[in-house]
């Protein structure tokens, strides 16, 4: 049984920059990916001073995690993006770079973008948490 995914923006709510306020999954299994960090396969931080480089590595890692469960970005039903910054320009940069990437379809579902004071690894600037409705 394949999950049916509906994305909804009620007229009573504000317009969004690409995500939907509500994502409904009718049936199926889900996968909850751990926060994808900007670490290479050896566990080293990529781009210590570059939000762009870190976003790009997070995309690579998220795509690998999705592939491991036979899913694609369009199967993502919820995302949370954490950016270590209180500058709205940094948050916007991360959002736009993610949305324009190969992972971009993931961010058309319900999504939250947060500026935070600290992330788990020294020098880490971004992390992405994804929930996926698994295809059959």
Short description:
The chain is of the alpha+beta class and 136 residues long. The protein has 2 helices and 6 strands, in the order E-E-E-H-E-H-E-E.
Describe the structure.
It is built from 2 helices and 6 strands, in the order E-E-E-H-E-H-E-E. Helix 1 packs across helix 2. It has helices at 51-68, 88-99; strands at residues 5-8, 22-25, 30-32, 76-83, 110-115, 126-133. The termini are close together.
| Biggest beta sheet attributes | 4 strands, mixed
User: Helical segment tally?
Assistant: 2
- Please report which band the strand proportion falls in: under 5%, 5-15%, 15-25%, 25-35%, 35-45% or over 45%: 15-25%
Overall, the morphology is globular
Amount of helix: 10-25%
Oligomer: single chain
SS-derived structural category: alpha+beta
Query: Would you count the extended β strands for me?
Result: 6
The average pLDDT score comes to 93
Question: Which descriptors apply to this entry?
Answer:
four-stranded mixed β-sheet, single chain, two-stranded antiparallel ribbon, alpha+beta, globular, 136 residues, 24% strand
Can you lay out the helices and strands and say which pair or pack?
Layout: E1 5-8, E2 22-25, E3 30-32, H1 51-68, E4 76-83, H2 88-99, E5 110-115, E6 126-133
Parallel strand pairs: 4-5
Antiparallel strand pairs: 1-2, 3-6, 4-6
Helix pairs in contact: 1-2
